[in-house]
Amino acid sequence: MDLGIAGKWALVCAGSKGLGRGCAEHLAREGVNLVITARGAEALEATAAALRAMAPGIEVRTVVGDITTPEGRAAALAACPQVDILINNAGGPPPGDFRDWQRADWIKAIDANMLTPIELIKATVDGMAERGFGRVVNITSGAVKAPIDILGLSNGARSGLTGFVAGLSRQQRLAGRNVTINNILPGAFDTDRLRTTLKGAAAAGGVSIDEVAERRRKTLPAQRFGQADEFGALCAFVCSAHAGYLTGQNLLIDGGAYPGTF
Q1: Please, what's the largest Cα pairwise distance for the chain?
Q2: Of 78, 144, 170, 233, which one's alpha carbon is 20 to 30 angstroms from that of 249?
């Protein structure tokens, strides 16, 4: 299927690894020009080289920096001629017990996983509306629907973003101008983030990471962890010309882990 987005420009945050890279790869295959950001220069440049080899006809620009800072956001936006597609993504806060967290921990989590996406949306959606096309995808977490007790910082910050998007996405001056804003909620994907969570659970339970990982797999109807490539495929469709009637939604991709009807 031709997704109808060739020649568009996408800003993919935290695009050097994991789910962000999966999104960048599928957008590249559709002929989308890319600005990808990350804090680590080596991994970022390696990913950029792979994307250029995968899709020789596109332009790939890299911005090394922390997207959760004003300076990092300004540099990323300056590198993109126009943002037609915005993929908001940032590493989640660490697991732990809320009794151990201080105000600074909460502020850091909210800055990274709520306020940073909002600032990038603010900087881009009006231009999208003027051009008559825009796609915003926020990579959040399945924990928004089914909170995980040790991920309280993430549960809180990402739920705040979810509530904000629910209101903004339904504004007629955006939805009526073919600008959509959706959240994709990953479950257990084979990424660095999952490994960090498993490590925390292993330490808390006094068992090995492999044991915790195997227990987790057995709880999943799919009996496996997700792969970044399949996440990227969903993201690319949500960004496509065919998804203009899809907005304000929380799209759960978790191998069937969430047990609810709605």
Answers
A1: 55
A2: 78
Question: What is the band of 200 on the pLDDT scale with cuts at 50, 70, 90?
Answer: confident
Average confidence (pLDDT) over 106-124: 97
Identify how many contiguous H helices and E strands the chain contains and give both numbers: 10, 7
The answer to whether 87 touches 141, Cβ cutoff 8 Å, is no
What are the beta bridge partners of residue 136? 86, 181
Q: What is the CA radius of gyration of the chain?
A: 18
Residue type, 190: D
Sign of torsion over alpha carbons 74, 80, 81, 82: negative
Residue found under tokens 């924990």? 143
Torsion angle (degrees, nearest 10) of CA 69, 111, 117, 172: -130
Strand ranges (E), the chain: 9-12, 33-38, 60-64, 85-88, 134-139, 179-186, 250-253
Residue found by looking up tokens 């690894």 in the block: 17
Share of the chain above pLDDT 90, in %: 87
**Residue 74 CB coordination number (10 Å):** 14
**Run of H or E residues at 258:** none
Nearest Cα residue to 17 out of 184, 229, 212: 229
